[in-house]
């Protein structure tokens, strides 16, 4: 089973990003997704910089994937998207149907169908496969049972990737909630999300952590964590995605590797991960329940 | 040669046959007013007050307003289609949720029924369903739902090339210049939201409700569903909860709103405020001349969950505004204060916003 590092969803300083990937180059990862998927205003690393990082990681033996932006708004967003599709060094993760169209037009036949494509049934997945997708990164809100049904209905299997660790990317908006928090507008946001390593926690009026503000993206406050569910997850996926967090991402990756290699049991691995998590765990989506729940089968 | 009545646009009314050429087929045609019908009375109200099209859904999870007491059974769809066609108006059927493996046939059967009932178009989000519709009912007109999250012409043109969609409804995220660029770069007719409850997130890309309740607009056709809502009168004030999660608390004298989870008050860095969005409605009435100029083909009014009285009020105002716009060719159009007053009465939170059309909103 492969381990993949998802795209960096936060906005970190240039050097922090380079240091992060230099460290993760040594980690037991098979694939690394790179690129800005959240906000086109973020420019500490531009596409060329990401491609440079990709070369370093590829030299370290990782499969590198360039992820496209989830919400495409402007002609300039499309320009970046076309450049991503035109580069041939790395595979591409398509995160909207515009990316799919451009990949098909360019004759690319080994792209990754990203988690924001809304693939929920075998007919739609087959359309993506017929269009050149060779890996399916499943939407986090899809349950393990629903995922198994889709796979069972396919004529030929497709490599499947499940979001296994990290604050859940739940929504995208035209509005920047970080700028709003600082009483700023997006156009003049002063890049206030820079250096907020894990986003800003939003709490209910009772003080319970509920969501995370990450610019135009809203995430869960809790950390989706499938370490305790690995035996079931293994039956339905070939790749596990770990989403970067501000600190200890490498420890999390190593913990997943140890659990996959059966050096640690699922419950033990989950317990050990608590030390490295920014918030309480949840796994409800995998079990077909509210995502916020931490569900333990009776 | 067999002519399917719903294809050729032959509508039987007032005892004579006449040829109905949809107004949207020519470039210079006026903007269509697309109004919500959560029930047969709402459908008739919308048509009586000047809607060009009504959109509706079946009584199940195949549409994004799957609320109890709402929507249409087969007999009601037939009656609604007959009522609309007799008055030369159109019926659009929303089948805009994402089917899964185990319930796939419910959605395809819904498409079959829609074709059978003679609706003028189906509004779909799922590419697999579009492929089914295009293959099985090639004469059935396809609209891309806002739930399809297509925000660029590249995305919209993909649906056009693959499935022949004829219209796309844009998510409420683009600025006017961005909408204009989409219109300029696609043959697909573009429909935008004009009025009603405002999704602050990209439609089809929001799992907030799924996270809090396990039910999502994408898969269950519901956001912040009523069965998870609790209203509690407490010493601290009226509290509204969604699956136990506190969404807002209202002090005495404050009007307690429905706990749509993106419109609650939360704490961020010790500050309590509407962290995502206030309870407010989108209202783009003042942008009508600009929307017409850039080539928008239809304006959608949100609110299938609202009453026929809401539908009447909103449809009446928008009809008047569109008629005024059309009569003057866009020149000299101004928004009457009375229109805004009428619309504000039925707005969520009694306030309105231009949403993403207004840059500072972002």
SSE diagram, text form:
The complex is a heterodimer of chains A (298) and B (362).
Chain A: E1 2-5, H1 14-24, E2 31-34, H2 47-59, E3 63-67, H3 75-86, E4 91-94, H4 97-105, E5 111-113, H5 122-130, E6 133-137, H6 144-153, E7 159-173, H7 177-181, E8 200-203, E9 209-214, E10 217-225, H8 230-234, E11 239-242, H9 249-260, H10 266-273, E12 281-282
Parallel strand pairs in A: 1-2, 1-11, 2-3, 3-4, 4-5, 5-6, 6-7, 7-11, 10-12
Antiparallel strand pairs in A: 7-10, 8-9, 9-10
Helix pairs in contact in A: 3-4, 9-10
Chain B: H1 5-8, E1 10-13, E2 16-19, E3 32-36, H2 40-48, E4 53-56, H3 74-86, E5 90-95, H4 104-117, E6 121-124, H5 127-136, E7 142-144, H6 153-163, E8 167-169, H7 176-184, E9 189-197, E10 201-206, H8 208-213, H9 217-220, E11 229-234, E12 237-242, E13 245-250, E14 266-268, E15 271-273, E16 281-283, H10 288-294, E17 298-301, H11 308-328, H12 337-345, E18 352-353
Parallel strand pairs in B: 3-4, 3-17, 4-5, 5-6, 6-7, 7-8, 8-9, 9-17, 16-18
Antiparallel strand pairs in B: 1-2, 9-16, 11-12, 12-13, 14-15
Family (chain A): Belongs to the peptidase U32 family. UbiV subfamily.
Pathway (chain A): Cofactor biosynthesis; ubiquinone biosynthesis
GO molecular function (chain A): 4 iron, 4 sulfur cluster binding; metal ion binding; peptidase activity
